[in-house]
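Pinned message: reference record for MBL fold metallo-hydrolase
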Amino acid sequence: MNLPDGLHQVADGLHLWSPGHPGTWGFANCLLIVSGTEAALVDTPYDRPMTEALIDLARPLLPVGATVGTIVNTHVNGDHTFGNGLFPGADIIATKAGAEHLCREPSPQQMHFLTHATPADEPLGRYAREHFGRYRYDDVEAVPPTVTFAGRYDLRIGGTDVELIEVGPAHSAGDLIVHLPAQRVVCAGDVLFADDHPVHWNGPLSQVAAACETILALGPEVIVPGHGPLMTPADVRRHLSYLRELAERIEAGHTAGRTASETAAAILADGFHDHLGLPERIVILTAVEYRHLDGDLSEPDLIQLAGRAAQWAYGARAPRA
Ligand SMILES: [Zn+2]
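Predicted structure (tokens):
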């Protein structure tokens, strides 16, 4: 796979590893923070080869003799955490809510099964191979956070102030954003996606929008989304319109008595923001939003949601409810 050949300096002491690849799942951004004799990393890649590639590129940027002593996980999806185990001895910080919902996340073993042992001729098996088959899940383990918090957690990496602000539940049950006030940079995690339709497993969309508002209120110049290229505050405002428009359309479908699948199919048939990649994520977003509109408080089944998106992606175009 095509991986970055370097880290890109976003601001003084901040270096971005951005694997890009619009129209794909799993290539998440990671931000290296270096100051004085210390270093931290916001999010870790999805598998061992990618994490080792990042570590090799980061090494010359680290102070002599220093290692990455702190990992921050913006949330606990595997594409932001499966590399945690390659930083032995580091503190791993996440929200308490994120840690409590780790059991909901597909493990590396489950992802390996999904990409190798599911029927390849059925939508989910085919989709899993197409979008996740490029990663290696057989030699990583999910290493949980060692430090958790609720609300807010302030860190100092060398001389750099780092504020962790809980904004979940939104994308997941336990999202946080990372604010670097002196550099005017915010890492949004998967509250924000650039280039592709977003996917949100927890929702509702109003909570994701509220998290975007929190980001804007911090007055950043540069926003690092969970996936895709860097964003400006204007990009975030545009994305807020997307979220509100989508929430309105879903609610209208719900009010009209249509099923989640019918509503998603109608939104997709209209070409909603069709310049963005992975339109099948609308199927997931709609199903998740319906759960909130229906007052369904049970734990969402991520694999089942992905299966519905896969069904649409391969031409069913009208997935079963
Ligand atoms: Zn992600």
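Pinned by admin. Summary line: Residues 28, 77, 79-80, 190, 226-227 surround zinc ion (CB under 6 Å).
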